[in-house]
Amino acid sequence: MAAPSNQYRPVVDDPEAPPNMVQRWQAGTLLLFDVDDAPMLEKRDMVMNICMVQVALSFVLLTNWRRSPVLLILHPFFIAAGVLGWYGAKHCKSVYVAAHFMGSAGLALVFLFFILAETFLKHTQGQQTATADLYFIILNVGIFPCLFAIVDEVSVNIILMMVGLLVCQQAVAVSDTRHMPALFIGIMCLICDWATLNANATNIGIHNIAAGGGIMASLIIPAIICDLIDNRFGRAGGYAVLACVFSEFGVMHGMNPVNIDDLVPSSFPFFGTGDMVVKGQLTASFQDTHPGWTAAGHGSALCSQPPEFRVDQAKPDGTPAVGMNEGWRFSVAYAALALFCFGHMGLQKMGFINPAIMDNGVNPHYVKGQIAGGEGGTEMTTSKTETKFADMSKEMAASNA
């Protein structure tokens, strides 16, 4: 009875074995090894997956054709390199796989040189967004870990502080004065995060705003406020819907100690499966019935609770509040705000509310990164003066005629 084809069998029993191999096996001069090829097959599958991802990502270049049409030249080459690598991995042709990696690396290098050249050209033209592409590349090629290993922590903190101050300066300079309240509210979200990390703040409101580092809240909330100031109710409603979804799943206001299995982190270190570890952790917030954490006297002492959730959840009379999760509350509030915005958008369409201001809140005196009257603002002031004199000359000529 012949052995199944998927099992090992001696060479002497294999009718397809060459005669010389059978003789060598019988003479004891042929050595056969049982090699586990599973790791090699895993690597082959990994290369094939990388090639498929490369082909898919190459289509991202198509979304940028209006800005840089010349990059479309690289598009078919990226696709061809990915297909070549996939074929080589599929059929175990090492030359094709090597050609894929070498070609992809060369195309990526060309793309990098193009972005660098474009960045420098933008700088020569005085465009303030010239470094955006360069920062994107630096953040994604792994250079920053090398820099952090070379530069000491104090210097890094000073650099980050200076960059933050420059960002704040530019935001204030570019934005119209009517949007200043929204900018400062965005800064408050980050201050709340600092208070929870460095000042051991236990106020529930601070923890709600600071969840997830306060980053997403500092982006979405000012956007809503700016659109409300400008009567752009449709876009404000869209941001409110986005905030509603984010709050429900912990991206914003993620103060949700109770997870979807109704489990609460008991103490530090964390024990149990499924416990929430940090604020801003992805979850599905819901109204729970657990008594809130409070100071000693009405509940468990805050010092015995996990560091991320050391918050005073107490009623005005000092008794524990019912329910620990907070995200769902904000989700309901943002849903109500979205309905408010969409209702006002309808009233605006009917003419009961003033039309929207469509200047995107840009400071009208902001030119080339400077404010008119300061350094770099002479050009704008001179241009306005020349335009005014030209208009006066036209009026005088018309009156004389």
How would you describe the overall organization of this protein?
The chain is mostly helical and 401 residues long. Among the domains are: 38-127, no CATH class; 178-349, no CATH class. Helix content is 55%, strand content 1%. It is built from 13 helices and 2 strands. It has helices spanning 19-27, 38-58, 74-90, 94-124, 131-140, 143-150, 153-174, 180-198, 204-210, 215-229, 233-248, 327-349, 378-400; strands at 366-367, 370-371. The chain has a two-stranded antiparallel ribbon. Strand 1 and strand 2 (370-371) form a beta hairpin. Helix 2 packs antiparallel against helix 3. The protein is globular. It starts with 18 loop residues before the first helix and ends with a helix. 20% of the residues are buried.
Keywords:
401 residues; disordered N terminus; mainly alpha; 55% helix
Q: What's the alpha carbon Rg, rounded to whole Å? A: 32 Å
What is the overall number of helices?
13
Compute the number of strand runs.
2
Mean pLDDT: 77
Estimated helix fraction: 55-70%
Proportion of residues in β-strands:
under 5%
Neighbour order of strands in the largest sheet: 1-2
Unreliable stretches: 1-9, 368-386
User: Which structural category fits the helices and strands?
Assistant: mainly alpha
Biggest sheet statistics: 2 strands, antiparallel
| SSE series | HHHHHHHHHHHHEEH
- The end-to-end span amounts to 117 Å
Principal-axis shape: globular
Q: What's this model, at a glance?
A:
This protein has 401 residues and is an all-alpha fold. Helix content is 55%, strand content 1%.
